[in-house]
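DM between two lab members

TW: hey, do you still have the PRELI/MSF1 domain-containing protein entry open?
JB: yeah, one sec
JB: this one, 254 aa:
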Amino acid sequence: MDGAALAVTCAAAAADAGAGGRAHPHHQPVPGRQQQSRDSPPAVPGTCTQLSGHLQGGGPIPAEQHLHIPRLLRTGHRQEGDMKIWSSEHVFSHPWDTVIKAAMRKYPNPMNPCVVGVDVMDRSLDSQGRLHSYRLLSTEWRLPSLVRAILGTGRTLTYIKEHSVVDPVEKKMVLCSKNISLTNLVSVDERLVYTPHPGNSEETVLTQEAIITVKGISLSSYLEGLMASTISSNARKGWDAIEWIIQNSESTVS
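TW: and the structure you got?
JB:
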């Protein structure tokens, strides 16, 4: 899970300039053992929706201060029917292997405090040597009164299912995530693809796409726009988290 599905739980806080997620202790699974969330999580059905699309939008991106600023190639969002689609493409200045190791250990991190639990549901190798991982993420959100009134819910603990496939031969990682809470109100389907930069093996390209759909409530376009903005913000936090993990790993080794 990166910026998109996490927006289901964090977008509401962005609607209130003074509201922010409370800090919560992080829960990290013991390697090789399934962990229990504080509440009994719902069953995780199947794999996440496979998304496809072409990156659109773009234009100059203002420089911002990050731990290590990736080269942002393109970002934007568009409307297609009753769905809003957000997409981006950017480059990490690290080899693919380094970025993938960090992406697999992304949570917990100080940039995404909304994620309070990570449960590994299953992990296995297929006949082609690809690593499949199924995880359940527990997230907390804080709802401003306006969003709470629109959604008609005060729920704070939500769940997101995540399926990733790492192909060490093709050097490609595909990660899909989807919320499995509040699905009668909103759905966020996200797809991330990590591949080596075609022109520089010391760099890694990450392409992201998220489909946001708010269902059967008033001000749906407002909420979809709010979530698209929050997805963009959370994606940047996700890039920073990967850089933070890489830097901390390097400092530990040295």
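TW: got it. DSSP finds four helices and eight strands in the chain. The CA atoms of residues 130 and 167 lie 5 Å apart.
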